[in-house]
Amino acid sequence: MDLSSGKIEQRKLAYEDVDKFLGGIGLAVKIIIEEIPDPRIDPLSPDNILVFMTGALTGSPVYGSSRYVVAAKSPLTMAWGESHIAGYWGPELKKSGFDGVVVKGRASSPVYLYIHDGVAEIRDASKLWGLDVFETDESIKKEIGDSSVKVAAIGPAGENLSRIACIASDIQPNGPRIGGRTGMGAVMGSKNLKAIAVRGSGKVRVKDVQRVSSILSRLLPLIMSSPTAQILAAFGTAGEVEEFYEYGDMPIKNFTVGEFEGYKNITGQSFKEKGIVVDVYGCWACPVKCWKVVEVDGRRVRAPEYETIASLGTLLMIDDPHYLAKVSYLCSKYGLDTISTGVTIAWAMECFEKGLITAMDTGGLELKWGDKETVLKLIEMMGRRIGFGSVLAEGCRQASRIIGRGTEEYCMHVKGTEMPMHDPRAFKGMGLQYATSNRGADHLYGLFFRIEQGQRVHDLKIYERVDRFTYRGKGWMVATMEIWSEVLESMGLCKFVDIPPAHVAGLYTYVTGIKKLLPDLLKIGRRIFTLKRLFNIANGVTKEHDTIPKRFLREPLKEGGSKDQVVELEPMLKEYYEYMKWDENGIPQKEVIEELGLKEYATKLGIMT
């Protein structure tokens, strides 16, 4: 779909592309590298390619098959970018007869797309521009005359090209679900694309219904008997606050403090006991239902999840559950990633405390730890790019470059993406995962803290319990979990619905009719991960970027569950490169590029001749 010309073209998926890349993120990265005129383009230019892509199993009966990906060159990392969203929008797109949407160019005025039962339309969105995501959802449903339409939209932050702008979908009545990371909302805004509305009356075909049903019936007791699934079902991701705190994993005061008594007030259990959570909801085909609902300003909205509770709570020294429900709602309303928002505000607070940022920079605002009203005000300013909020809306790396004065030292990011809410001093493999992730600091690509909590994945040869404080032997394990994450994201499967890898292979085979064994899937996962790495290399990413802030390398905490620990990154990185068959500079070697069938892409990116 070319918004510059208004031309809409429908293409069929080629079997060989599905065979090599599955779907979801696999197809998205392939399409972007093929279609982008130059990987070094400005991410906010019309030349960037924005891809919405469902997974190979999205919309099927398989548990957790709700996810889709939004990918493009990132304005936050200036390299690879992607964000993942669960809920119902992806299955609805599949039911409308499409696997994905590829957006090129820039519309001359605001538009939205309406996709329904094999038809795609570009519609005027002039009256929607400036609306928040909730207002946008309401307006589009009213215009179309169908309350069942699923809408993915940006808010004012995306319109104003905030580098930390997100995309919201399944916005009402109990949402939204958020695609938060790497600024995909800004790319959408740069194209004058306000929303994509989808409606479908079809069904996702399953090749062998009986065998799929048989596998699922055996899997359900296994999935629901795990302690993690039980916590998520009862309290959502907020139910893990206490456990992460005890590990010394939950960040406090911009990752500088190991203890904070107020955490007890903002656990998922506390939210439930105080009656703040009013309902439970679930994504498509999900038995776990970790999606909890609260009421804010008269709306039923998604309850704050663990990452939001930490990034806008403990990271800022705030322990008020009612404030957290409000601030989560505000970020959703304006379309801001809560992780990046909290980390950027924490950066500003620490710099203000140290005298590196003053009231002259902030327009008179005093930035103090624990100040709820100031945080709420800053989010309003960030969402609409007002005053100092316009600086913060750039994300902490770019904001620190604007301010200067040595402030970048206090910005907790990797490759430009703000750190998630898991301190790598508590789970050292997470430090390696952050350093090597293709989209910058990333807790979900690999989810390695689960392994360091004691999870074993026998199908991937992780048989023994892993010591969270050791650095030895983690290179190959982190790489393996990252590769497996590419498979899950190409399938459209949620990692919180923990299906054993061998069963994923079986389910894929019986849903699609295309036989894949586990080794086949792992090779595809490696192909996808390596292709993203090649894209990043074309954008100047090297070994020096495969690191984490020096705070985690040199500054141990003085108290808490990870007291006296630092991350020994270099030996893990060396082992990782060797396992991935990359050279000492982190560049995939020629033989692995050829083995994975990526020579034509490496050539297009200018890495091979």
Overview of the molecule:
The protein is of the alpha+beta class and 609 residues long. It is built from 26 helices and 15 strands. β5 and β6 form a beta hairpin. The chain has three domains: 185 residues, Aldehyde Ferredoxin Oxidoreductase,  A, domain 1 (4-Layer Sandwich), CATH 3.60.9.10; 192 residues, Orthogonal Bundle (Aldehyde Ferredoxin Oxidoreductase Protein, subunit A, domain 2), CATH 1.10.569; 180 residues, Orthogonal Bundle (Aldehyde Ferredoxin Oxidoreductase Protein, subunit A, domain 3), CATH 1.10.599. Helix content is 41%, strand content 11%. It is globular and about 60 Å long. The mean pLDDT is 97. Strands 6-5-10-7-8-9 form a six-stranded mixed β-sheet. It has a four-stranded antiparallel β-sheet with strand order 3-2-1-4, sandwiched between helices. Its cofactor is tungstopterin; [4Fe-4S] cluster. Keywords: 4Fe-4S, Iron, Iron-sulfur, Metal-binding, Oxidoreductase. InterPro entries: Ald_Fedxn_OxRdtase_dom2, Ald_Fedxn_OxRdtase_dom3, Ald_Fedxn_OxRdtase_N, Ald_Fedxn_OxRdtase_N_sf, OxRdtase_Ald_Fedxn_C, Tungsten_al_ferr_oxy-like_C, W-dependent_AOR. Belongs to the AOR/FOR family. GO terms for molecular function: 4 iron, 4 sulfur cluster binding; electron transfer activity; metal ion binding; oxidoreductase activity, acting on the aldehyde or oxo group of donors, iron-sulfur protein as acceptor.
